[in-house]
Automatic annotation (TrEMBL):
GO terms for molecular function: snoRNA binding. The keyword Repeat applies. It is found in: Nucleus, Nucleolus. This is Small-subunit processome Utp12 domain-containing protein. GO terms for cellular component: Pwp2p-containing subcomplex of 90S preribosome; small-subunit processome. SMART domains: WD40.
Amino acid sequence: MVQSYLKHGPTQAFGLVCSSSSNSVFDGKLAFVPALEDVLVWDVKKGHMVAMWHETGHREEVTCIVQSPKPDLFAVGYSDGSVRLWNATTNSVSATFNGHKKAITALCFDDGGTRLASGSQDTDIILWDIVAEAGLYRLRGHRDQITGLHFLSVADSQPSTSTASAPGLLLSTSKDTFMKIWDLSTQHCIQTIVAHRSEIWSLAVNQEQDLIFTGSGEGEVKAWRIDRKSLAEGLKETQVGELSRIVHPLSSLPLVSKHRVSQIQFHPTQPYLAVQSHDRSVEIFRVRTVEEVKKKQARRKKRAAEKGKQAHGNGNEVENDEGDGASVAMTEATLVDFFTPHLVVRASGKIRSFDFCGSHSNLKNVTQLFVALTSNALEVYNIPQPTKSRDEPAEAMRTYSVDLPGHRADVRTLCLSSDDQILASASNGSLKVWNMKTTQCIRTIECGHAVCSTFLPGDRHVAVGTKSGELLIYDIGSSTLIETIKAHTGTIWSIHVRHDGQALVTGSADKDVKFWSLEQKDATDDSVQSGKLLSLVHVRTLKMSDDVLAVRYSPNGKLLAVALLDSTVKVFYQDSLKFFLSLYGHKLPVLSMDISHDSKLIVTSSADKNVKIWGLDFGDCHKSIFAHDESVMQVAFERGSHYFWTVGKDKLLKYWDGDKFEAIQKLEGHHGEIWALALSHHGSFVVTGSHDKSIRVWEKLDEPLFLEEEREKELERLYETGIAESLNRTEAPIGSGVEGGPVNDIAMTEAAGVTKQTTETLMAGERIMEALELADLERDKMKEYNENLARLSENDAMRMQPPARNPVLAAYDLEPEAYVLRVVEKVPSTSLQDALLVLPFGKVISLMVYLTIWAEKEWNIILVSRIIFFLLKTHHHQIVANRIMRTTLIPLRKHLRVALQKQRDIIGYNLAALQFIHRKNESERTAQFYEEEDLDEEKVKARIAEGKKRKRINLKA
């Protein structure tokens, strides 16, 4: 009988406010922030989470978030190179784009929100069509990761010489110090500027699109002017014979600090520019108007003239000349005149990103600045308007902050109450208590640098061991620190309560193991609580030869195990402290250990990446297992069994069988080293805490798990990812069948197609192949039957019954061609082209036959057109060289033309109808104006054009 286990799966992830992997977006009320592989939506004012954007099975970190001009649509980039379009109203993915090989570093929508540009660590820029859900083309030219993208709109009146449907320019910056301008109609770079001496980290363009700001790694911000005239006219030769340039350098903007300029942003409506170059602060510049600058220049001239008069009166002619020179210099406005420092916003921690409030703030004369911190917190600051009084310098005030639902530092220790209802987590600076049903933080208490913790009997108190050697006792009900015991002179690495609940043992780096008894004492007058208080009384001390890293009582209460820095584990009798066993074999110190419920096995986990299982009768090592790729931080037995769990610095949680010495399950999910592990007392779930500041719950499911099946699935995944990776290799030589490989070591072209094979596209291609095979067999069978039937006379008794239909077609009640269309329609639009690339040429010919049938019957003409154009473009040479294809292509051309003509007629009819409705609406509005006011027709049209219509007011019942 094959043994089956119960599978565990991730169910909850909490403790995260925001992660530092990506930027954040703020719309005035809601903040859209990254939380490792998810996006969280926070109501900043109320401080609670509104939604979580989570896609099942996707574990890659969020690296970039950007909001579309259509407010409900967000583009989110991930570290695996995929981009997902999320709908904020339904909290679901509307499209997934796969084209990049490495993490997404920059995203940008065009003005209409119909095109999306994505930049990545793989140095490529890809343009995506949001409406058609397809990749348009890939732009190559940069030599390092893309750091900024921005669409530059071309004037509508510009005569477009190209046949491209969407002209325009794209601005891109990269770590390779270059800023490039791409002409999207010709798909080529038209200007390359060496912008800085070091990497360009940030890019911003003002609302009028005539100024560009770039920030470098050396803390320098440069301003560039966009020549709107040459932008409208396109590339033309000057009199000298050089091409006209679109971007021209202006000057630099002086900053307070000289750190890396990680973000620059213009306020969408207010005259503000924000620059983040320091870890903890954001500089706000006020953008002056031309009138304000002229007034300032006039004042400067006046002052310079007065100085000159004074100098002349004193008989000092040299000063007079200098004064005149200064006045001449002031006539030309400098960049500093337009961008004047307003204030510096200083946050409470290191800033990851900031964002201006998208819409107008509810407060008068106040602009809001949203800040996401690397310490797992969010803050909103109010920026006041500039005042004329010089006495009071403007200061930013923090209005909202979201920090309670998470730790500021790594989660170092976890412990569960005996009924599994409450979880306590501790980090450097705070102890938090969580309700396990709702995963809400119900208590936050300040503490020192916590290293270990445990619930004391009764579940009302938590004992925390700190790095300074203190033992802190907290009362959960009142959120108070009851007692601080200076227990050790070194770090307390381990605490364990004896199973009878009467005693406690602590192990420390000061080489002492101390024993404590739990007692109730009367409350003093100055204490917060009345009645009896829990207290720890020091009973005895066991001195060791080396630092103590872990201590553990056996469940039967007879033995005490002590792990030392010399990589050994010493076992003593608990009552007499007499030496019993020494367990040696680890090459590096044992970081954690646990004893099974029957006190027969002890499992030790070490920094040497191994887990060893020992018998407690004789101290023999039953098995040594290479468990993790990094140090194994913690190990724990499941209640009532010999199954145990391990966590390591390799970000993995693993489940093991201690009798068969086999790995049962490997659980991925964390994005940082896992420091802490806590097991349910009823064996129903596991909780882990990590360097990524998240706490995750892994529940036991009812689904059985067979080891052989799991191994097969792992091998299949490895095989599939191997195929996808080999197809996506671009450095492979010509002839290897790899798309986009270099020819005779010649560099790749600037513009290329957007293709990327993934496991999903390979599977979609296989499904299309299976459907084609099934349909071909069915059609051949029917053809043979009809031929045989035609040979027999009508009165012949041998007339055969029609052959049995394929069970799949019979179940769906579909004809073969309809079934193939159904399968093709189910392939996501974004991965259709990659799925078609999987098909061998024989299957392409077969698919052409079905395309002809679909065109004739006018089924989904849009999809048919898209497939046929892509196949003709991809397999052009083979199709041209193959004479047999004529018989398929000629009827296909005929039917497709007829179908497309009908589609064109319908669209034309609808357009004409819409124009008629528009004209009717215009004439009615004009007539209405005539009736209301005594105006002539020209004035009415002018007022309509200005948009001076009646205001629409939403009446509330």
